[in-house]
Design goal:
Length: 172
Protein backbone atom coordinates (compact mmCIF):
# COMPACT_ATOMS: atom_id res chain seq x y z
CA UNK A 1 0.00 0.00 0.00
CA UNK A 2 1.23 3.46 -0.93
CA UNK A 3 -0.35 5.78 1.66
CA UNK A 4 -0.58 9.48 0.77
CA UNK A 5 -2.68 12.47 1.83
CA UNK A 6 -4.60 15.21 0.04
CA UNK A 7 -6.18 18.33 1.56
CA UNK A 8 -9.07 20.18 -0.05
CA UNK A 9 -11.25 23.10 1.03
CA UNK A 10 -14.53 23.69 -0.75
CA UNK A 11 -17.19 24.97 1.60
CA UNK A 12 -18.56 23.27 4.64
CA UNK A 13 -16.51 20.20 5.45
CA UNK A 14 -19.71 18.31 6.29
CA UNK A 15 -20.47 18.08 2.58
CA UNK A 16 -16.89 17.45 1.50
CA UNK A 17 -16.48 14.12 3.29
CA UNK A 18 -19.11 11.95 1.60
CA UNK A 19 -18.01 12.38 -2.05
CA UNK A 20 -14.48 11.21 -1.26
CA UNK A 21 -15.39 8.62 1.37
CA UNK A 22 -17.27 6.57 -1.22
CA UNK A 23 -14.32 5.60 -3.42
CA UNK A 24 -12.13 2.49 -3.25
CA UNK A 25 -8.67 3.30 -1.95
CA UNK A 26 -9.83 5.94 0.52
CA UNK A 27 -8.50 5.11 3.97
CA UNK A 28 -9.98 8.08 5.85
CA UNK A 29 -11.52 11.51 5.34
CA UNK A 30 -11.09 13.84 8.32
CA UNK A 31 -12.77 17.23 8.77
CA UNK A 32 -10.57 20.04 10.02
CA UNK A 33 -9.06 23.46 9.61
CA UNK A 34 -5.99 24.62 7.71
CA UNK A 35 -4.39 27.54 5.96
CA UNK A 36 -4.56 30.04 8.81
CA UNK A 37 -2.34 31.57 11.45
CA UNK A 38 -4.00 30.47 14.72
CA UNK A 39 -2.75 27.18 16.23
CA UNK A 40 -5.37 24.64 17.31
CA UNK A 41 -8.40 26.73 16.30
CA UNK A 42 -11.91 25.88 17.43
CA UNK A 43 -14.94 25.82 15.18
CA UNK A 44 -16.14 29.06 16.77
CA UNK A 45 -12.80 30.75 16.10
CA UNK A 46 -12.77 29.65 12.45
CA UNK A 47 -16.38 30.85 12.02
CA UNK A 48 -15.34 34.27 13.36
CA UNK A 49 -13.30 34.75 10.15
CA UNK A 50 -10.29 35.94 12.17
CA UNK A 51 -8.01 32.89 11.97
CA UNK A 52 -7.35 32.70 8.22
CA UNK A 53 -8.30 29.01 8.23
CA UNK A 54 -10.58 27.22 5.82
CA UNK A 55 -12.83 24.31 6.67
CA UNK A 56 -11.12 21.45 4.86
CA UNK A 57 -10.87 17.70 4.55
CA UNK A 58 -7.70 15.67 4.87
CA UNK A 59 -7.94 12.53 2.78
CA UNK A 60 -5.64 9.60 3.44
CA UNK A 61 -5.61 7.29 0.44
CA UNK A 62 -3.88 4.32 -1.09
CA UNK A 63 -2.20 5.74 -4.19
CA UNK A 64 -1.95 2.22 -5.62
CA UNK A 65 -5.78 2.20 -5.81
CA UNK A 66 -6.77 5.83 -6.40
CA UNK A 67 -4.45 8.58 -7.62
CA UNK A 68 -4.09 12.15 -6.44
CA UNK A 69 -5.15 13.22 -9.93
CA UNK A 70 -8.41 11.27 -9.54
CA UNK A 71 -9.02 12.98 -6.19
CA UNK A 72 -8.52 16.40 -7.77
CA UNK A 73 -11.02 15.46 -10.48
CA UNK A 74 -13.54 14.48 -7.79
CA UNK A 75 -12.87 17.80 -6.06
CA UNK A 76 -13.94 19.75 -9.16
CA UNK A 77 -17.32 18.00 -9.04
CA UNK A 78 -18.06 18.91 -5.40
CA UNK A 79 -16.69 22.46 -5.08
CA UNK A 80 -17.65 25.60 -6.96
CA UNK A 81 -14.33 26.70 -8.45
CA UNK A 82 -15.79 30.07 -9.52
CA UNK A 83 -16.71 31.45 -6.08
CA UNK A 84 -13.84 32.91 -4.04
CA UNK A 85 -16.11 34.23 -1.29
CA UNK A 86 -17.71 31.00 -0.13
CA UNK A 87 -19.44 27.92 -1.40
CA UNK A 88 -23.12 27.53 -2.15
CA UNK A 89 -25.11 28.62 0.93
CA UNK A 90 -21.92 28.92 3.01
CA UNK A 91 -20.42 32.40 2.80
CA UNK A 92 -17.13 33.78 4.09
CA UNK A 93 -13.39 33.33 3.87
CA UNK A 94 -13.40 30.05 5.79
CA UNK A 95 -15.42 28.49 2.95
CA UNK A 96 -13.18 29.57 0.05
CA UNK A 97 -12.06 26.88 -2.44
CA UNK A 98 -8.43 25.83 -2.01
CA UNK A 99 -6.39 22.82 -3.05
CA UNK A 100 -3.55 22.43 -0.55
CA UNK A 101 -0.67 20.49 -2.07
CA UNK A 102 2.17 18.53 -0.50
CA UNK A 103 5.19 18.53 -2.77
CA UNK A 104 5.96 19.46 -6.34
CA UNK A 105 4.13 16.50 -7.87
CA UNK A 106 0.80 17.35 -6.20
CA UNK A 107 1.28 21.02 -7.10
CA UNK A 108 1.89 20.19 -10.78
CA UNK A 109 -1.12 17.85 -10.92
CA UNK A 110 -3.42 20.42 -9.27
CA UNK A 111 -2.22 23.26 -11.52
CA UNK A 112 -2.58 21.18 -14.69
CA UNK A 113 -6.02 20.01 -13.63
CA UNK A 114 -7.12 23.60 -12.95
CA UNK A 115 -5.79 24.67 -16.36
CA UNK A 116 -7.65 21.78 -18.01
CA UNK A 117 -10.82 22.91 -16.23
CA UNK A 118 -10.34 26.49 -17.50
CA UNK A 119 -9.85 25.23 -21.05
CA UNK A 120 -12.90 22.95 -20.85
CA UNK A 121 -15.26 25.94 -20.62
CA UNK A 122 -17.39 23.92 -18.19
CA UNK A 123 -18.11 27.08 -16.20
CA UNK A 124 -19.18 30.48 -17.46
CA UNK A 125 -17.27 32.36 -14.74
CA UNK A 126 -13.48 32.37 -14.17
CA UNK A 127 -11.90 29.59 -12.12
CA UNK A 128 -10.72 31.16 -8.84
CA UNK A 129 -9.76 28.11 -6.77
CA UNK A 130 -6.42 28.73 -5.11
CA UNK A 131 -3.62 26.18 -5.10
CA UNK A 132 -1.44 26.62 -2.02
CA UNK A 133 1.18 24.66 -0.09
CA UNK A 134 -0.27 22.54 2.70
CA UNK A 135 0.02 23.96 6.18
CA UNK A 136 -0.65 22.41 9.55
CA UNK A 137 -3.99 20.58 9.52
CA UNK A 138 -6.01 20.74 12.73
CA UNK A 139 -8.63 18.04 13.25
CA UNK A 140 -12.09 19.48 13.89
CA UNK A 141 -14.15 18.63 16.94
CA UNK A 142 -15.60 15.10 17.14
CA UNK A 143 -19.15 16.18 16.35
CA UNK A 144 -17.95 17.36 12.90
CA UNK A 145 -16.45 13.97 11.98
CA UNK A 146 -18.53 11.66 9.75
CA UNK A 147 -21.39 14.15 9.87
CA UNK A 148 -23.22 12.48 6.97
CA UNK A 149 -23.27 9.19 8.87
CA UNK A 150 -24.26 10.64 12.24
CA UNK A 151 -26.88 13.07 10.91
CA UNK A 152 -28.17 11.68 7.59
CA UNK A 153 -31.34 13.80 7.47
CA UNK A 154 -29.50 17.07 8.14
CA UNK A 155 -26.73 16.12 5.72
CA UNK A 156 -29.28 15.39 3.00
CA UNK A 157 -30.95 18.76 3.63
CA UNK A 158 -27.61 20.62 3.46
CA UNK A 159 -26.49 18.73 0.37
CA UNK A 160 -29.77 19.03 -1.51
CA UNK A 161 -30.23 22.67 -0.55
CA UNK A 162 -26.80 23.84 -1.56
CA UNK A 163 -24.06 21.93 -3.27
CA UNK A 164 -26.02 19.45 -5.37
CA UNK A 165 -28.59 21.97 -6.60
CA UNK A 166 -25.91 24.50 -7.49
CA UNK A 167 -23.69 22.07 -9.35
CA UNK A 168 -26.62 20.69 -11.30
CA UNK A 169 -27.65 24.20 -12.35
CA UNK A 170 -24.24 25.71 -13.17
CA UNK A 171 -22.17 22.97 -14.74
CA UNK A 172 -22.34 22.64 -18.49
Amino acid sequence: MKEETAIFAGGCFWCMVHPFDQHPGIISVISGYTGGHVPNPTYEQVCSETTGHTEAVKITFDADVISYKELVEIYWTVADPTDATGQFQDRGDSYRPVIYYSGDEQKAIAEQSRQDLVESNRFDDPIVTQIQPAKEFYVAEDYHQDFYKKNPERFEMEERGGRAAYMEKHQK
